[in-house]
């Protein structure tokens, strides 16, 4: 199961990097991406500085997604694949931190819009880690 675990997590890491790169296209490209039901141009209401701010926010989120994906892959393909226990915990901690911050949108903003991606990613990380949960018992023995 160890091999299935790191392969699944590698695929997830690649998807995170790819999604971040595609999101950066929305931020910096000349595309009319949507924020919920409204395009960013409509939301800006003809104010270029507002559109730039919204695109900048998207660009920052995209940059963090790519960086998270690269670090995720670095851990998965290095220490995690070698069976180091700390890497299992580090991947879990990263996924839980992402889920916790993303879930704050429900009580603070009153919306779950945008929560699907972190929930999906968290679920895949959990499945991937559970495939190799045995490493925790081996290291403690």
Task: Describe this structure in a few short sentences.
The protein has 141 residues and is mostly helical.
3D architecture notes:
The chain has 141 residues and is mostly helical. It has one domain. It is 80% helix and 3% strand. The chain has seven helices and two strands, in the order αββαααααα. It has helices at 2-28, 40-44, 48-82, 85-103, 105-109, 116-130, 134-140, and strands at residues 34-35, 38-39. Strands 1-2 form a two-stranded antiparallel ribbon. Helix 4 (85-103) packs antiparallel against helix 6 (116-130). The chain is elongated and about 60 Å long. The mean pLDDT is 94.
Structural class designation: mainly alpha
Q: Biggest sheet, strands in spatial order?
A: 1-2
Largest sheet: 2 strands, antiparallel
Distance between the termini: 19 Å
Helicity range: over 70%
SSE inventory with pairings:
Layout: H1 2-28, E1 34-35, E2 38-39, H2 40-44, H3 48-82, H4 85-103, H5 105-109, H6 116-130, H7 134-140
Antiparallel strand pairs: 1-2
Helix pairs in contact: 1-3, 1-6, 3-4, 4-6
Descriptors for this entry?
7 helices, two-stranded antiparallel sheet
């Amino acid at each position: 199961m160890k091999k299935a675990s790191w392969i699944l997590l590698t695929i997830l890491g690649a998807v995170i990097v790819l999604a971040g790169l595609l999101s950066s296209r929305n931020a910096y490209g000349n595309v009319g991406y949507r924020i919920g039901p409204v395009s960013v141009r409509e939301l800006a209401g003809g104010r270029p500085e507002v559109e730039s701010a919204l695109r900048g926010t998207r660009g920052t989120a995209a940059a963090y997604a790519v960086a998270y994906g690269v670090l995720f892959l670095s851990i998965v393909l290095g220490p995690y694949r070698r069976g180091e226990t700390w890497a299992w915990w580090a991947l879990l901690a990263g996924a839980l931190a992402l889920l916790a911050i993303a879930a704050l949108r429900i009580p603070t903003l009153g919306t779950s819009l945008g929560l699907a991606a972190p929930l999906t990613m968290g679920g895949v990380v959990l499945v991937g880690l559970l495939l190799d949960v045995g490493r925790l018992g081996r290291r403690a023995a």
